[in-house]
Amino acid sequence: MLITSLSDLARQSLAALRVLVVLTVILGIAYPVAVWGVARPLGDRAAGQPVRVDGQVVGSRLLGQSFEGVQWFHSRPSVNDHDTLASAPSNLGPLNEDLLATIAERRSTVAATEAVPEADVPADAVTASGSGLDPHISPAYADLQVARVARARGLDVARVRELVATHTERRFLGIHGEPVVNVLELNVAVDRASR
Q: Which subcellular locations apply to this protein (predicted)?
């Protein structure tokens, strides 16, 4: 329909301006304030679940990060070096030669670091998660690292195993998922135990 006069144009422009103002108030002010209000009582759960040591944020409970050195439990490999801005899988298929070579190299490195046969290296020690940001490892991978971390920290192996058990999260509702260990929280606990 064509606009027939200047008054029609002014009327339609005013209607569009009203819609813009109303939607700006609803979506730009009311909705964010409502989300903030609902999230406020959740505390750190709504703020990325930061992990603090001596009042300093050392990471997030929800995001994986790299730990270098024999004194730390190591995380899963990450295609993007745990870069939260570039989280993505490699998109290489299970028969891709580059992926198979990378997995074989990782398996060899982990086996040498932990002084175990390559056959004993669990899958999550050599494969990255879909996002590359998984903060968890399997209890099997954590157990594989216990002796090395205990030796490097001067702790009893039984004490380190106890810390792993304490930081193992069970299946959700007892049926969903697999038991996992949050690497950051475990490393914080091991660091405190070795002080």
A: Cell membrane
